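Researcher: Let's continue the batch. This sequence belongs to (apollo) hypothetical protein, and it's 83 residues. Same format as the previous ones, please.
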Amino acid sequence: MRERRACNILIAGTKESEAEDVQIRQKLDENVVNNIISNLNDEISPADVLKIIRLGKRETGKTRLLKVVFKSRLVAVKDQNKS
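Model: Same format as before. Here are the structure tokens for (apollo) hypothetical protein:
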């Protein structure tokens, strides 16, 4: 269980799209995460990300956490050390 969690990072404070279409919101979240990753660490690529999930129920005016799941623990640790 811990090994699985070690592959995750949480990102707070990213503006959430107000689009009604889930696919549009997911694509925008993917772009935000890719931008953050590329600015923090040159060794990590978008291909290292398995999935991106917003945590919690969507509410107007609130920002939800982004959970980013990486392919391996090593990638997640490299990213956390740069922040």
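Researcher: Any comment?
Model: The domain at 2-82 is CATH 3.30.70.1820 (Alpha-Beta Plaits).
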